[in-house]
Structure formats: structure tokens, C-alpha cells
Amino acid sequence: MTATPSRYRFLLIQGFRLPADSPYLHRKLDGPKEQTVMDYPILAPMLEGVDWEVHGGALTTYGNWPVENRQEFMHSGLARLPIVREACESGKYNAIVLLGGGEPGFHEACEIARPYGIPVSSCAWSQMHVATMLGSRFGVIDLAESHSSYYANLILQHRMDRRCASIRLIYFPHDRPGCPSGRPLHEERAKARAGERSEAVEEAVEQAVAAIEEDGAEVIFMSCSGLFWLQPFIQSRLDEMGWEVPVLHGYKCAISMAKAMVDMGVTASGLKYPGDRPGRRRRKKLV
Amino acid sequence: MTATPSRYRFLLIQGFRLPADSPYLHRKLDGPKEQTVMDYPILAPMLEGVDWEVHGGALTTYGNWPVENRQEFMHSGLARLPIVREACESGKYNAIVLLGGGEPGFHEACEIARPYGIPVSSCAWSQMHVATMLGSRFGVIDLAESHSSYYANLILQHRMDRRCASIRLIYFPHDRPGCPSGRPLHEERAKARAGERSEAVEEAVEQAVAAIEEDGAEVIFMSCSGLFWLQPFIQSRLDEMGWEVPVLHGYKCAISMAKAMVDMGVTASGLKYPGDRPGRRRRKKLV
Amino acid sequence: MTATPSRYRFLLIQGFRLPADSPYLHRKLDGPKEQTVMDYPILAPMLEGVDWEVHGGALTTYGNWPVENRQEFMHSGLARLPIVREACESGKYNAIVLLGGGEPGFHEACEIARPYGIPVSSCAWSQMHVATMLGSRFGVIDLAESHSSYYANLILQHRMDRRCASIRLIYFPHDRPGCPSGRPLHEERAKARAGERSEAVEEAVEQAVAAIEEDGAEVIFMSCSGLFWLQPFIQSRLDEMGWEVPVLHGYKCAISMAKAMVDMGVTASGLKYPGDRPGRRRRKKLV
Amino acid sequence: MTATPSRYRFLLIQGFRLPADSPYLHRKLDGPKEQTVMDYPILAPMLEGVDWEVHGGALTTYGNWPVENRQEFMHSGLARLPIVREACESGKYNAIVLLGGGEPGFHEACEIARPYGIPVSSCAWSQMHVATMLGSRFGVIDLAESHSSYYANLILQHRMDRRCASIRLIYFPHDRPGCPSGRPLHEERAKARAGERSEAVEEAVEQAVAAIEEDGAEVIFMSCSGLFWLQPFIQSRLDEMGWEVPVLHGYKCAISMAKAMVDMGVTASGLKYPGDRPGRRRRKKLV
Amino acid sequence: MTATPSRYRFLLIQGFRLPADSPYLHRKLDGPKEQTVMDYPILAPMLEGVDWEVHGGALTTYGNWPVENRQEFMHSGLARLPIVREACESGKYNAIVLLGGGEPGFHEACEIARPYGIPVSSCAWSQMHVATMLGSRFGVIDLAESHSSYYANLILQHRMDRRCASIRLIYFPHDRPGCPSGRPLHEERAKARAGERSEAVEEAVEQAVAAIEEDGAEVIFMSCSGLFWLQPFIQSRLDEMGWEVPVLHGYKCAISMAKAMVDMGVTASGLKYPGDRPGRRRRKKLV
Amino acid sequence: MTATPSRYRFLLIQGFRLPADSPYLHRKLDGPKEQTVMDYPILAPMLEGVDWEVHGGALTTYGNWPVENRQEFMHSGLARLPIVREACESGKYNAIVLLGGGEPGFHEACEIARPYGIPVSSCAWSQMHVATMLGSRFGVIDLAESHSSYYANLILQHRMDRRCASIRLIYFPHDRPGCPSGRPLHEERAKARAGERSEAVEEAVEQAVAAIEEDGAEVIFMSCSGLFWLQPFIQSRLDEMGWEVPVLHGYKCAISMAKAMVDMGVTASGLKYPGDRPGRRRRKKLV
Hints:
CATH topology of the largest domain in chain A: Rossmann fold
Strand content of chain A: 5-15%
CATH architecture of the largest domain in chain A: 3-Layer(aba) Sandwich
Distance between the termini of chain A: 44 Å
Shape of chain A: globular
Pfam families (chains A, B, C, D, E, F): Asp_Glu_race (PF01177)
Oligomer: homohexamer
Strand order of the largest sheet of chain A: 2-1-3-4
Number of domains of chain A: 2
Organism (chains A, B, C, D, E, F): Paracoccus broussonetiae
Family (chains A, B, C, D, E, F): Belongs to the HyuE racemase family.
Largest interface: A-F, 63 and 63 residues
Protein name (chains A, B, C, D, E, F): Aspartate/glutamate racemase family protein
Number of strands of chain A: 8
Helix content of chain A: 40-55%
Number of helices of chain A: 10
């Protein structure tokens, strides 16, 4: 951190926080910030010169397992709002980056932060926008039917349905109570990083290629942050195969778009997220 | 109620419940169910022969004023989910009707209820579907910028953007702390029902006509349930003017669609609201 | 039938009527109404409490074989209009249900009936609307190229092209003069109902699954009423396979939507089906 | 007519034929073909070198007044089909041009003629296609609410809704029994051609300009053939005003497109208008 | 050529002209016009009675190989503009036909020619418009990834994306310096015309069938004029297979549409290609 | 410039360069880079820490006046390509920022630069993408009919037509030979910056408000770089009026998106801008 304040003062907020004793917990909750942010090493260059902090997220209010279905996303979205409000009121940040692939509470966070002049960036929103800058259609890799159905709804809300080639599923749902244990992603990640064969990588590559060849995808990204670690693996595999297709990483996109909004001095339009008594009103709103 | 069980066994759930001591409370919370459901007299014929109960809604978790912005809708949506789950588990109902114009928690309620084979109906969803059966485009009458922005997002989620002529605003936001008091809708309603001139009626008619003449609306409905009482007034005024345009009432639509789903023996598709471990999975989801 | 008039007084009108001596005739033309309405047993619960009559349809004016191509649909559409007009003038009905999957004469019937305040419901229209309430996209099962091309045009007219995953064809065209005899559907139905293997069922299930897996269908229905009997068979087969996908029945949908319009007290918008000299006119019509 | 057969052998078929004693009849039914085709003088150059005949149309089957609403269009469509079939069977023509602005029976005529290798051209279809060649959006001038609603449905069927800026109405409905007499178009035409002020011209120009300035129209045409005579008047008025906007004439477009199809040796695709037992079938039809 | 001036006076302009010593040159540059226009024999009937000349095109400014990628198209587009301007100024022509499948400089040529009242026709534009007259969706056969990407952009500009089933690639890129030599199309053409097996024909038919069966194409055409010779071969193969699908030829379409515009007396709208100081201006332009 | 190389090494390339003796020249061609880049003071913070150079642009090849119509854009686009190629080959830059509002040569520049791994950013492209991140629809302020027609075509190519509320015109065309002199923008700018009333500002604000109130714009930007200086003036006027609507500056957007692409390590997809012989090819391209 520099003596003169940085151009960028960011708060990164985790999507949710599992209880410390959760059997489903596979990430570090405490310690230096660099250790609690997933995939920090690949983010480090982008964060250089940024004054950033990370909030560990709101404790899950529905149970001790990871977010996957619509109800759980609504829980996590609501739980995150007080953190956003507090961050805005603190005056310490000039942008908020919502971690978590399914961006729980994104719209509501924008509604909170906009009157403070603080832009909010999140993963689904930023990945879709970056992807459509780079190619005609994007392909999404998802990990469960329930999650992909929720995610399709995000795509609609961002008016990106015409730009989505498809959501392709690999079947690695998060473990949860009452369901037979699946193939834990953290084990896949460990294998891949150890240079071993990972079924998650294999299936993701297979689906990415199918999205390219059959569905018209020209850019690939993952929906759930639990899959973001796949990005360099899929990218290098596509490179090797000769597919010149960008594979995006949600955190990179979210941080980049936050920096861009700060640079340009903009936040979301007040007509998209109006205050309770806006200074000026339209008679007619078009959808 | 009949001795033999009715074909229809419905639970109507209010959108939210203000604390009994809220200065913003303008509806009856307790007493015979017929008195706690808004506009019961115009619903009565449709409910004849229906075994129905009404749940007063979840207590608001954000404050003591009515829902209007995105954050408040998220609060109300989440708060309503346990009621939905409990109703499903009770085995007493064969459909759930979500009252409240902005249908807080609708998608999540569908996710909960579908595995029980219980259809869920709500006001925005049913009004849009009924409206597009009757005309090419619908016009929505809304009461505040924040609410209409939230509502536009519902229209996107229901894939109805191409069918929405416009959202037209009359400016009657709900009173809320810290904002100057507006023109309370319950007073407008009282005037209208007393045969006096109501500004809300006048403005709503004016905007309905503008939606018809300028925006291409062929059917009209209101977004917020706080405006539903306007329905007969706008309808009769349009009739008098010679506009043969249906004006819908959210509760009528929601109840009708619930009855229809029960009659047809259907609920939402399991591919729209998949369970956590669905029996069968798609490799590819299109948005 | 009850002593007090029912809430619902419906006339069901067959799509067309083959001459009694037609070799292509495979349904009962006369007798108790319950025997002349196809699939009555599965409709019976919905019709309980409904005052209903059935009109056997207009005699075909193009020949003695079933409707399948565009010309034949135009013939049948026109032939049905006097029946609609007479029903409206009789004052006996408060809704008209057009039987026949390809809904010949639907728009014209709406034009006739609307000034009487009588809603008209038909199979294609109602199936599409019900399907889009339940899922993102519907898949249609059709029986001949000519019919599916006509049907695609109905989908366009109902502005449902974005919601149609695909029309999937099984090849069971109706027998007609000058063409080699095919595989008669009434024989397939007999086999299926007798618990024997029916190629029509097999192919329909195969195409339904393809529509789900490849085309994005989340709800399935049949286009031609000659295929409606497949509904319970496809539904149960999909259920067995673990696909939680609603399969609709055209008559159920049409009757349900008729009941709903009566309940809500609405008909089609006068701006969609204007009279010859409407009381009020728009300067501008948007498509 | 030339000794050697012309490259083009066309049959022009009137939209319908009023009885000779109809009080609503304002065009010549018999005599030299040049006198029975409306606006022949402006068509003459295009018809030079064409072997053409005109069929006076089928006698109206609904009454003795001009076609305007949906029912009447269905009547006229069906009545025209035998003429089309006979023309195809005669072997005398290599294209059929359907006169009549609302193109009654167009799709069905295509279905009939395609197996003969004979292209069919009609006014709405050809005007829309020509218009979108020339500009981004077209504006339509129509004469009655009922007609414009029917015409909007044609636009949908031709998948041109995104290209239609608006249908603008001037109010000159055809006279019909039981309705107060309006402002007969043939009188307006007489005035305009006599150099006198015509309200129809004035209103049409006003609406054309509104379509250009407000709705985004870049090309203008009329829906009903009863309005086609306005074409040169609107064109010259727009020219004078400085609007460089093509105004189309339905007959010119229909004849041009017929010539083009003959030149290119094409008819409509057999997948759009399949025969009853096509040689080859698709498993999947997309809408 | 006739003594009296023809109704049609056309200048056909080649897409580009390779230097006479180019090793990539495989067409005749000089001699009688009938020998320098590709596929003249199949165009001859359409050109009968037309006063036509052909311009050999502008010398390539980027190199001595054929146009294929975006840069090369921009070069060729710009180089062609002076030819267009000169043709307009000459007063000799009443329409300009741009040869070359990828229509380099089409929009700019329209901008130049419109004030002269001279319509401009070109291959991509006219093929798309003709195709959508004949069927719901068209399938394009292309020869290289770079070319198809450029061509997709043409489809967008002509607002035809919803009407394009797919671009299907056969891999016959033009030879160019620094790239290994491929399978030269002129050799394929020679084989096909000699009645020998041509891989280009085989692959094109295969892709055309895939476009029909899988992508929903109902009409087929080629993007690059280097592929136009395939038209009769693909057409006859589809005919043999029983697919009743029109296969278009770019030059036929472009000439036909030029004739049609001359017949109708229209050019592109001045609102689509406005002059530098138009007589009349809009305040609002819609995209 | 710093001792350690910056994270960002950018070449900014002007849209075109007027001859030094052009009477239409109103910007500084030589001197310190900070003086040749328009609006440098508002860009300065964003360029801090960036190693940047500016190229003065290619000399105009069509004349000595500014680019405005389609032909001129094609000239400027082609002329800029060698500069792009040279910059890529130099190895000095990791991103290229194309100045000039109408982004002449953008697609072709991407085609050139992508194989070098160098992202290209330009004004129209980046403004549209940024705008749609911030609001539902954008409104564009343009200065001439010809320019806005060209610009509409850019919007189509970027698949942003559904997101464009309207292009609103103020009438300040660039002076050009043979046309009466208009109201030079550099004089308007001088007035505005001097605190005097500028008609350009007044009209732009008026049109921005119309775009917001009537067309549904939620974000505003200018098309032509000659209008970019308006940005702070329009923004502050809207702020004063109570409209909470972001007004974008093209250069800010283009630089931000360049930085973002460098940060994320991405360029355009190789499937959007394929090389001449790509390593991997698709059989099917969707538009």
C-alpha cells in the first residue's frame, strides 16, 4: 500500500461465509487477505497499486453448505446487503467488488451504493459484458442443473440472452446434506494443480469445445466461482488444440470493470437503480 | 365450504405484514379472512367453491413501511419462503397464490413447491401471461421509479419485454420514513369509492390512455397491489371513452391461473426449477 | 347439469366434421356428448360443474379426409364461423372452446365473439400460453411436414417464435386420397391403450426427449388433435425416465383458459380484434 | 403481345369481385383488361413485353361490400383458391400475381402453385420485402382499425415485425351495410386526380410524415389496395417537402417480384410450403 | 442490343481485378464481355434485352491474390468507389450491379449513387432478400473462417441475423502467399463441369443438407462469388435427394433486384443513405 | 515515462489527419502529445502511469475536410491500417486505442492486431459496451444525418440495436466544400468553455432529455469525437436538472477498456477475427 492514496480503493466481498465448523468448508476464512481470496496469484498483477481489502462475506443463513439453488442465492444476497451498506457509509472505498460467481444481491447492492457514487462490480455481470466485447456469443460452463437455471435468470436480467450460446453442464454439484456425496471440486483442483488428470478439467474442456463447435460460443467462462480455478486449465487446453478462444476468470473481470468505472468516474445509471424519491422522474419506462 | 373436499384447496399468502403498530399500516391484519384480503368483493365469485385460507404474510424485516425498492423486495421475498415451505409440507393445499403485486420470492417459492407437485401463482407472472393472451402488448401502471425499475426486471425474467408496451408512472409512492409524505393511496381509494374525484384515478386513466394511444398497449394492468383497487375505476372510464381494452386485476389473474394449473394437473417444469439432484440432467441449457 | 345456472356455460365446437360415409372417419359423430368428445375421460373432472354442449363441427368443404394442409385449414376455418356466430347470438354460452389442434378460424371467431363479450379459447393458442407459463421454451410434436409448416405460422401469429424450441416430427400423416396409406393413428391409439407397443408412442417419446436434450424444450405438447391422445403416454414415459417435464393436452388447456377468462370477466382486447366501426380509434398501431 | 412467347406469362387475380349490382361497386368489372386493372397507366411500362391476363376475382361470399375485416379476408382467400388451382393446371402461366392489398389466400395459393413450379406474388408480401431492401423500417398507411389489425397479422407471418415502424391510420373505412357512410375513397381519388384538395391525400401525407419523424419509417406503403392510388400523390408531396423517402405501390412490387422469381427460376421453398407427402422430410422444424 | 434504348441499362462491376501476371488469376480479364462475366451462360436469359456493360473491377491494392479477409474487403471496397461514381456521372446507366459475393463497398456505393437516382444492387444483399422471400431461414455456404466472419457482419448489417440458419463452411480457402496451397476452386469447378467427382461439390452438398436438417435452412446460397458456380450442382443434387429447396445464384439475384428497382422506379431510401446536407432532417433516428 | 516499464503501453491513433493547410483544420497537429490529444485534461488521471504515445493519424485521402459520410469513413479506415500494423510489429505497445468517434477501421484493426496478442479498443465499441453495463438503453447524440446513418450501422455490427434508445440529432455538421458553412463546433466549444451560451450545448441537452424522457435512454454518449467535448457540459446540466444519468466520454471509455483488456490478458476472440489459416476451424458459424 502506498503513502499517497491509491487511485483505486476497493472492498472485495465474498459471496457468503460458511461456519468455521462446516464439513463443507474448503477455503481459508482467516489470515492475510492474499490467502483468503481464491486464485490470488493470478489476480495479483491486477491488484498491484490497488488499495484493497476483503470482507469474508456474511455467514450463511440457510445452512452450512455452499450456495447452489435459488433459495440459497436469495439468502446470500440479502445477507450481503448490510456489508455493502456499511462499506459505502465508511467512506473508505471507491468501488465494491462482489465475489461469488452467481453475484447474490448484485442489483440490490447497486441500489444501495449508487447514491454514494460508488460503483459495484460483480462476476456474472462483468463476465457477460467482457465476453460480448470479445466475441459474438459466450458459452457458460456450469456445475449443476439448479445453479444453471438460476444463472440463466441472471443472463435474462442482464439482457444477454441473445448473446449466450449455451450453458453447458459438467456434473460436479457441491456436496450438501441429504444428497450422496459427489466429486468434490477442491479435490479436482488439487489434482489439476498437481499436474494430475482431473475429471472436472476433462469434462469442462469437452463442454467448452462442444459450446464452440455446436452452439456458436466464441468466448468461454464459468458461472460458479467454485469453477473459476478451471480458467487457466481450459485456456491452455484450448490453446493447445488450436482454438483461439478467450476463457475468462470472473474475479479478473469484476476487478477490471471496477477499475474501469472508477477511471471513467461513473456508476450505474440512476434510471436503472432509482432512489426512493428521485430528483427527476420519467412518466414512461420502457423495458 | 363444502362437505366433500373442493377441487381447489388454496393458500393465499400476503406479500408482507407490517407491524401492528406501524403508522404506515392501512389494511386489516386480523379478523375473518374475507376482511383481510384486499378487494374481496370482486374476488368472491371466483373463490366460490374454493377451499381457501389466507396467510397474513411474513413480518417485514427491513422496517415498518411497505415494500417498494429492490432491497425491500428481497427482504420480503426471503421472509415469505418459510411460509411457502410449511404450506407445502402441511399437505393441506393444492395450490399457493402469492399475493403482492411485485411477487416477492416467486421463483424461490416455485423451486420449493414444485417437488410437492403444488403449483404457485403470483400477480406479476399471471398478469403478464393473461395480458398477452388478450392483446399484443400490455401497458403497466406503476407508482414509483424504484418500484418500476424492479418491476421491469420481473418483466425481463418472465421474457415479456417484447410484449410490454411501457410502464407508465403515476406518482403515488408509498409513504416511508425520511421522505416527505406523499398522496396516500388509501385516501385516494376512499375518495374513489365514495364517488369523489381521486387524483390517482385521474392520473391512472390519463396514463392508460397514453399507453394505448402512444405506446401500443392493448391491455392494461397495475404493477403494485397497492394500485389494484384502481382496476374497476380505470376499466369503467375506458369503457365510457369507447376504448375496448381489458384492465386486469392481479388477484383475479393469480387465482385464475392457480385454478387452471390445478385443473390441468400441471406445475412449473422441472427444467425451469430443478431440484438439487434431479433424476435426469441436460448437458446443455439454452437461455 | 344443475338447477341453478353454472358459472360456466360452454360450447365446444369440433374442428370439422367428416361425412358419415367417409372411409377416413374414425370418431363417433353422434350419441351422448361424452362419447363424441375425444379423450372425454381425462377431461371429465374439469368439466364437472360446467354447463357444456358440443357442436359436431362443420362438414368439410374440401373433401372427406381430415384437415392437414393450409388449404384444408382455411376451408375448415371458414366453415366453422357460422357456428360461432350462431352460438354467440343464441345467448346460451359464456365461452366458446374451439376443438381441433390447428385451431381453424380462431382469429375470425374472436372477431365475431368479442362484441358479444364472449371469450373464445382454442388449442394452439392455449397450449402455447400455458406452456410458456410453465417453462422457458416449448417443444411441439407434429405429424406431417405440411401440418407443421401451417402450425409454425400459428406460432408466429401468437408471437411465440422465441419461445418455441422446435417442432419435432413423427411421421404419421393422416390418410388421404391419392397417397399411399400410412400408419393410422387410431390404430396406434388402440394399441397404446391396450398396453401394446405403439410406434407412434415410441417415436413421440424419442422426439420429446430430443426436444428436451437438444433443443431446449422445457414443456411438451402436440400440435394436431389427432395426437392429443399421446399426452398421458408421453407424460408417463418421461416421468419414468426422470424428466420432470409437463406434457400438455390441448383440450385441457383450451377449457382451462376458457374458464379463466370467464372467471376474470375478460375477452380479447378490442384493439386486437376491432369491430368494423370501433368507438375509439388509434392513430398508430404497432406490430 | 408478341409472336414468340414472352419470357413472362402472368395471371393477375383480383382480390375479390363484388356483384355487378352492388351499391359498393366502384370499379370496372368488364371490358379490356387494361381498364379493369386499377392504376393500369402506372403499371403499363412494367407490363410491356409481358403476356398477361387478369382474372376478375371470385365473387364475394360474405356480402356485397368490400373486404375489410378478418372474416371477410378469410372468405375472399378461400374463394380465390380454385382460380389459382385452375390457372396452375392450365399450363398457361409462369407466375401468378395476386392483386388485393391484404393478399387473401396468399399462403394457400403458394401451397397450391409450388408443386407446379409456378411462383406466386402478392402485395403485402412483396411490399414488405421491397421496403426492407430500401430502408431500415417501413411505415404502413391503413384505412380502418379492423383492417390494420388483420394487416399486422400479415406482418407477423412474414416475420417483418421488427422492420415495421408503425401502421398509421387515416380513417376512410369502406362503406358497408349498417354503418353510417364514410368518406368514399373513390371520391377522394377523383378529387385528387382532378387536382382538387383531397382529405385522404392530406391525412395520408400527414401520417406518412409522422411515421418518418416519430416512428422511424424510411419507406412508406399502403396496406389496402383501395389506397394504392395515393402512391404518386404521397410521393410527390414528400418529394416537395424534401423527404427522400420511397413510397411503394403494391401492384408494382408484386409484378416486379413475380418477374424476378421467373428470371431467377425460383419459387417458394418446399420446406415453407411442403406438399402432402414430400419426397424428403425433416425431423425438426424451427420457427 | 436494340435500336431503341432498353428499359434496363446496367453496369456490372467486378469485385476486384487481379494483376494480369498474378499467379492467383484464374479468370479471363479481357475480351468480349460475355467471356469475362463468370457463369454468363446461366445469366444470359436474364440479360436478354438488357443494355449491359461490365467493368473489370479495380486493381487490387493490397496484393495480387483474391479478397478473403476483412482488410482485403476494405481495400476492394474503397477501390471500387471511383468506378461507381464515374458510372453515375456518365449518365449511361440506370442501375449498377456490384459483382463479387462479399459486396465490397456496397453501402458506400449506395451513398454515391442514390442522389443520381440510380439503384445499386449487390450479391450478399440481394441473395439475403431473395432468400427470405422464399423461405423462413437461409443457409450460407462459405469457404474460409475469415471470410465467413466478414460475411456474418454483412448479415448483421442487413438485419438478417434472425433469418440466417447458419453459415456452413467447406474448407477451400483461396490460395495466398505464405500459406500452403489448398484445393483450388477453379480445379474443382473444372472437374464438376467435366462430370467428374469434385470434393467441393461433395462437401457443399453435405453442408447444405446439414443446414437443412439441423439448422433450419429452407433456402441455400453461397457467400463468395468463387463458390457461385456450385449453384446448379448443389441444386440438382438436392433435387435428386428429394429436398425441394431453392439454391440461389448471387449474380442472378443481383441482376433481378436491379431490374426490379428500375421497374418500380425506386432506389434506396434517402434516410438510409442521406446526402451531406439533406433537404429534410429527422431529429431522431432509430436503429 | 517511468524507469520500470509500465503495465500499460498504449498507442493512441487519431482517426485521421487533415493536411496542415486545410481551412477545416481546428486542432493542433504537432507539439507535445498532451496538446494534440483532444480533451487531454480530463483524460490525464486515467493516463497516469500509462506509457502512451499518440500517432497523429493518416492523412485524409478523400479531401481536406473532416470525416462525416460513409465513403469518408472507408477512406479513413483503410488509411489507418498500416499504422496499426506497424504498431503491432514494433513490439512497443500492449494495446492500441483508436481515437475518432466513428472508429474507422476498427474491425480490420482487430483482425491485424489479434494474432500479435494486442487488444484494440475504439470509441463507438467501448462506449456502447460501457453504456450497457450502466443502464438498460443508451441514447446517442449525433451531428449530421449522414454520420448518424453510418453510426447506426456500427450499432448493428456491435449487436447493440436492442440497447439503443435512439440517435438524437443536433444539427452541427462539419463544414465541407460546396456546402454552406454551418455552425462550427470549435466555436461552440470555445463559447462553452468561456462560460458563454453555446447553442450546441443547449441543443445537446435538449436532445439528451428527450432521449431520456421519450426514448428510454438511461445513459448518454456522443457519436462523433467532434462532440466529445460536450460531455462535461451535458453531464453537469443533467445533474442540475436532477437526472442521475451518466454521460460518457468516448476517449475515457476506449482507454478504460484497453486497460481492462490488458489487465485481464485478453484480446478479441479468434473466432470473431480469424486468421487466414486458423489452427482450428468450425464447420458451422452462427450469426
